[in-house]
Input
Amino acid sequence: MVVAIELDPFHLFLWDPILFEGTPFELNRVGLLTLLGAALCIGFFLYGAAKKALIPKGASNIAETLYLFVREKIAIDTIGPKEGPKFAGYLATVFFFIFFMNVLAIVPGVHFAPTSRMAIPFMLAIFTYLIFNIVGIVKQGPIGYLKGTLFPPGAPWWVYVLLAPIEFFSVFIVRPLTLMVRLLANMMAGHVLLTIFFLFTHDFLVHNLGPASPLGVLTLVVAAALMMLEMLVIVMQAYIFTMLTAFYIAESVHGHGDHDEAHEDAHAEEPHGSRQVTEGLAA
Amino acid sequence: MTTELLQLAQESTGGVTDEGLASLAHGLVYGLAAIGPGIGVGLVFGSAIEAMARQPETAGETRTTMFIGFALIEALALIGFVLAFIL
Output
């Protein structure tokens, strides 16, 4: 016996409003989950910052370690020790906002990431786009910024005929577009993948399909494995978005293709023992 | 959903329709667009891991450069993904 599940394809992309119907502040399930994610994010860090101690414990320990990871490994490593801490706040906000939005995708009973709708990635990409352009204009001046971006130094003059349009396309159009589409595509693909495998499992095991039924066990195992993959994707996407934002800001701060200074600063305090050993071996 | 697909498969008369070809194109556009970037991203990460293993002291710099290359290459795959929706 074949029982067709009622699955309205529009339900996958459009949701009925739940609250404040008919007003500009209309909320559907996606909007409510966005607010939930933001509340979780703010709540976690407020709780972590509530008890200040020399040796942090529990939640404040976790919050502090996470923030320091973004500050040290992303902001300072990419932008440099001088300018990095200034942007650590924005980068940490982006990282944890995306992380808490994404993590709703594997929370039982929710299973939906607000980042898999265009609004959130779009907004975040707009913020990043504005910030790296404004920083570039402030740091290098409008003409210097455009010149440094469109005409990166070190190429023969005739190459610039080709290079300038490509750089313009890649910096001002492709960058924000790929930032938002990357996050959206990854979260939506994960959501659809999980949906498909759980629906397969449901169909095979609950609605008995005859000899094909044992396949349901296989799809259930694959679905569980995909949940693990989803956890990895959730952290990776938050990291990649933040890392790319930091890189774009670094490029605006230091000028196009001129990262040597920043990295000299960043690694100045490191002991050079290992490098000397390698050089010694090479000699 | 599965059962619906099975039903569709049983009910279909075997004719090639425009709708069917369009669905095929959606799949093919993204599938083909993902081949090149897949190889490219693999090369970028492979080389970056090799570089980090050889010179752990420059790992931070390598990671930054790796993500630039990764972002540029993945842009192509993402354009394919968007095209699959637009077409």
Observations:
- Chain A touches chain B at residues 2-5, 7, 77-78, 170, 174-175, 177-178, 181-182, 185, 196, 199-200, 203-204, 207, 209, 240, 243-244, 247, 250, 259, 263, 266-267, 270, 272, 274-275, 278 (CB under 8 Å).
- Confidence is low (pLDDT under 50) at residues 1-6, 259-283 of chain A.
- Residues 29-257 of chain A form one domain.
